User: Fold these one by one.
Assistant:
Number 1:
Amino acid sequence: MTIVENNLPSLNDLTSHSKRRGFLFQSSEIYGGIGGCWDYGPLGVELKNNIKESWWKAMTLREDIEGIDASILMNPTVWEASGHVESFHDPMVDCKKCKSRFRADKVDLNKACPVCGEKNSYTEARNFNLMFKTQVGPMEDTSSIAYLRPETAQGIFVNFLNVQSTMRKKIPFGIAQIGKAFRNEITPGNFIFRLREFEQMEMQYFLKPGTQLEAFEEWKKIRLDWHKENGIRPEKLRYHVHEKLAHYADHAVDIEFEFPAGWDEMEGIHSRTDFDLRRHQEFSKKNLQYVDQLDNNNKYTAFVVETSVGLDRTILAVMCDAYRVENPGDKESERVVMRFKKKLAPIKAAILPLMKKPELEEIAMKLFKDVQLFCRAEYDTSGSIGKRYRRQDEIGTPYCITIDYDTLTDHAATVRDRDSMKQERISLDKLSLYLKDNLL
Ligand code: GAP
């Protein structure tokens, strides 16, 4: 068996595979779509939920981290305090001829417009705020302006004291959150890499001043390990240390993945000093200081190390890494297989009666119902068994279980492993245990 190990699929291959197999659809496709927005289909949402669960467990099954779910709309002063109103900009240029719009830092301003070919066609660069503005309530005046949050982090900062006091947390401790964020990106694209509506999984870890560097180093390692535990090949992951730091940060590193378009950011780990809590204190005029009972009731504004990973980018990386074409060009044996880590696979087992015969279907349906009690399974009766195996390979199902005529006498089924394609006969009464042992 020749396995094409090292190659990543092209984004086109992955986009069409995702659509064909029900992972992702263009948002509002029947109306021509809308830039920077995608819908997760039946298999995509399972994969997404499995990745969320993997992150949520990694973050909250610890004694020092609590979760929250803050609202998307917040008091607009939050975004003044955070600096987003003043400086969450990208520089933008337009082509004077075809009016196409580009991020000034992403096009070569000395070259012709990539859309219409016009030379020397760009306007002066001007700043474009990436926050979506909306109105809250029936009055459309300046007092009703609100923003769709461009990051989930601020919902955590403004709840720092609520969580600390209600959960009786002692520093160091963290707050974790998964939720939607919105950015009016000038040039969304590369499938689900750069979106206007996306999801973040963020954790803010609150620290005593002076301890942030140690925590930063610890979180760098924890977060890289998490990506590896999700099955991403280590050689496709690397750190990128920021040399130019944002004004509030004293250390920053990205975890990058080698996407089909090249190495790029999947997660940011930032040591944000006490900037955010200090600014919220200033703007809200509320005391957000922490009283350290373990240190003579010393009061201080907590420092923060943040880990911020894009859920959609993680899904893209997991899908790129899992997608393999095996034995390409060989009509008999070529197959596309999504080698998802088993815990992330959208469907864990497929139950396949060999023929549409009542005596086989009865056993298969009972097994399907048993398996569905503890993991997501699929029941499929249509097409040849070979075709059904291929379809399950393409969606990354770890196990196919075939009920055949021998089952009627030996009370066993054939279990086929997705990766090795090896088949073994397992007795029906041991199947659930077998799956639990191998999947969970
Ligand atoms: N609170 C810090 C923060 O938001 P960021 O580097 O701007 O930091 C964190 O974003 C992560 O969110 C990124 O590493 C990326 O995975 C994801 N992300 C940011 N903008 C995105 C977009 N337009 N589309 C998809 N994911 C995005």
Note: The chain has a mean pLDDT of 95.
Number 2:
Amino acid sequence: MSDFAEIKIGDSVISLPIIVGTEDEKAIDISVLLAKTGHTTFDVGYKNTGATKSAITFLDGDKGILRYCGYPIEQLAGKSTFIEVCYLLLHRELPTAAQLADFEKNIAAYYELPAEVIAVLDVLPTNMHPMGIMSTLLSTLTGAYPADLEPNASEETHWKNAFRILGHMPAMVAYIYRKQNGLAYIAPSADLDYCGNFLNMMTGKVDKDVVEALNVLLILHADHEQNCSTSTVRIIGSSQANIFASVSGGNQALWGPLHGGANQEVIEMLEEIKAVGRTAEEHISMVKTKTAGVRLMGFGHRVYKNFDPRAQIIKKYCDVVLEKLDIQDPVLGIAKTLEETALSDDYFTSRKLFPNVDFYSGIIYRALGIPMDMFTVMFAFGRMPGWISQWRELRAAKEPIGRPRQVYTGYTSRDYVAIENR
Ligand code: CMC
């Protein structure tokens, strides 16, 4: 097979190399296109555009495959812990027991929040959305570590910053919740593991089944290649902004209802269906007629076009968790009927719309005692190792600043008219 693609514009033909990834996915390298032809490409929403080479996460949307550094998500979710997955994403290898213990120790050294972060948290308005607070706190870390913001800092500093973010995340998430609910902060405990320590700071108790469920949820969210928030982290990092600013921006991108904000929207949708007594069929029909722009939240994905492997794990896990915790959530039944109705409807099947990771995650978060407006913060908590790892990959590859082109459609040149003559 040819290793080149040809583009014919007018009478001239240029050859562009085809690059092939380790999973045999192919891309036409257009980096010389503008210089050689004066043309750019046009791809709104980057649906066909590869923006980087990455060795962290592989996903095949048609086959429903998701792997972190080669390891299938099903195996990691079933056998690993979130902290081990953090190590994997940052080092690209699974740790030995000694390496993992050392890694955990380095992270636990940052369990306590810096005074600057507590000070900011204490003055932010309590009606601010937890996602807005989270971005603010991540940015505040620049005030806690002002000497370590250089993009070309030593490897040691980059590692320290990674440990700082991962170490501070549990307390930041827990304290956002506690502050907003008028509850006293609970000090971190180095005797507990990463997820246990988080749950203790959040809820004041640690239950083995809840810790296990939390590990699975965080693992499923840990990375997802070049999605909206990760691309945001990379594009901010490409300007050589520091890691704290970059992940703070990634968090803002995650907030939107089409991305991480969908987990909160799913529960709101299910609650509304219950409250107004609408049937699954009635809701599906509202979605299909595109009434008031209603989408079936928790359905569809830019890349997965047959199934989302994370959703399959979560759905099974949802039943297990609710049973273990002896919780009957009335919206679970509505979710299941909605899913069955949509999956047998041509509108959804013809557009390849299937449940995504967020369809059932909110039901589990709720069972774990996490309030609805914290769901997207929980997504950010899980995604953090992915963002850090992708930022480090970008910096190590010394990628140039991200700067897309456009096709300009505004006025062409015209003369300024003095205000009295308009
Ligand atoms: N409900 C109803 N119709 C939908 C949905 C949905 N959830 N998703 C897509 N469509 C329709 C859309 O209206 C369009 O139809 P038509 O061709 O008639 O105009 C067609 O499917 C293609 O939609 P699109 O918006 O071009 O697809 P996309 O790949 O740009 O969007 C998506 C992907 C995830 C933003 C979208 O499916 C969506 O809005 N889903 C609901 C929000 C959601 O659950 N987001 C969480 C994603 S998974 C977590 C994460 O990693 O972010």
Note: The chain has three domains: 4-50, 65-257+385-396, 262-367.
